[in-house]
Amino acid sequence: MKIKAAKRVLVVETGSVLDEGIKSLLLREPELQVETATYANSTTFLKDIAHVYPDVIVISEAGPLDWIQTTELLHRISPQQVLRVIVIPPGGNVLEVYDKQCLQVTHNDDLISLIRH
Question: Lower CB count within 10 Å: N or C terminus of the chain?
Fold first, then answer.
């Protein structure tokens, strides 16, 4: 029987009460390996998490200005394979989910194929 590896989840702490609730919820799941990191700016944050190699990053947005930071972070993250980023905006039950992967294309048809699938 093949043992399934724990999924590495990084909870980005912004200092909100929501962060603590998310972390508490995820820590109850034995198949999740939960790590935390504090976000001050994207450069420092990316250096701090370089050793974590998360499969999933969970970010809560406490205020409207957080969208700018989230967008910058999504742009600067370079995944090892495939990375899922879940953004939890304030005041609702709708989550934003981004799956990021870096693929090298060698032909024009590679781009067309990615768009179609």
Answer: N
